[in-house]
Amino acid sequence: MAKYEILYIIRPDMGDDQKQALVERFDGILTNNGAEITKSEYWSKNRKFAYEIEDYTEGDYYKVNLSASNTDAIDEFERLALISDDILRHMVVRLEHLED
Fold first, then answer.
1. Listing from the earlier edge strand, what are the strands of the sheet with 36-53?
2. Could you tell me the pTM of the whole model?
3. Which CATH superfamily is domain 2-98 in?
4. Out of 6, 32, 71, 93, which residue is the most buried by the measure of CB atoms under 10 Å away?
């Protein structure tokens, strides 16, 4: 199984309940498509950007570590993150040096 790390930035003007629901929704997307989440954590709140993103100058960062045997979960996460207005940016990194 390949190991991945996903980092995504959420709009800072959302309420805490809305942010938690969004994180749970995207964690569910990953697990429902065959990924096994090893860690899902809040990384940083209201961190300033180097440049504006969609009129925002700061955002909340979330990090997810996971294992997956294929890319179905990653593909679905990326597809939905791109069309979500609540996720400003996301990045998926395959951690090859940690593979079994």
1. 36-53, 56-68, 2-10, 87-94
2. 0.88
3. Ribosomal protein S6/Translation elongation factor EF1B (3.30.70.60)
4. 6
